[in-house]
Amino acid sequence: MRDIHCHILPGVDDGARDLDESLAMLSAARAAGVTSIICTPHCRDPYFDFEAMWDAYDLLVAHAGGFPLTMGFEVNWSKLTWLGVGEWAPYLGIQGPSFAGGGEATLLLELDTGAPPTQFAEYYRTAFELQGMGYDVVIAHPERYAALRKDLSLAERFVSMGCKLQLSANFMAGGLMGGSRRCARALLNAGLVSYIASDAHRVEHYDLLARAMRDYGSLLRE
Predict the structure, then answer these.
(1) What's the whole-model pTM score?
(2) What is the rounded CA–CA span in Å between residue 42 and residue 65?
(3) At what angle do helices 153-161 and 120-132 cross, to 10 degrees?
(4) pLDDT of 41-69, one tens digit each?
């Protein structure tokens, strides 16, 4: 099982605080059945330090005992558009060939949690631009977006474009007023979800991944 979204790199965002915690998370991932990890630190303010994140990746690889690790980023839409899609996407995609559907590479795109439905037109345009650059686009944790919780057709549009949806396993814990869990289940039951990832920031998040895959793995899109 590949974990395509986690915050396991030491000391670079709101995930692992140091190398010891990173290695504890790695042990928890193994126990949960994870066989490879894509490290995706935040590309958004106030965390984004490109060189420091690559240094943290190299440090973790050196101490991971050969466990398969790949570098990528969780790329916030607002930050990407501020940096420049054409200029920065080549540096922020997940390293290596795409695993999401046939493009040359994959980019994990985070939307703005409280954005109104009207903002989604801009999101679709950016996803289309990235696809035109050869990227397969994975939308991170759609269950958290307020507008999408109220209108699943916003998610259906992404899927109809060829984007993939990735739930974060902490929907198992419910979220505010149970909203994340309800939306995640609705997306799963509608056949819209391709991936469940840990989005791990702490050791205990890998237990949620194991539970989510046990209970809902059969509902993922082929």
Answers:
(1) 0.96
(2) 25
(3) 10
(4) 999 999 999 999 999 999 999 999 999 99
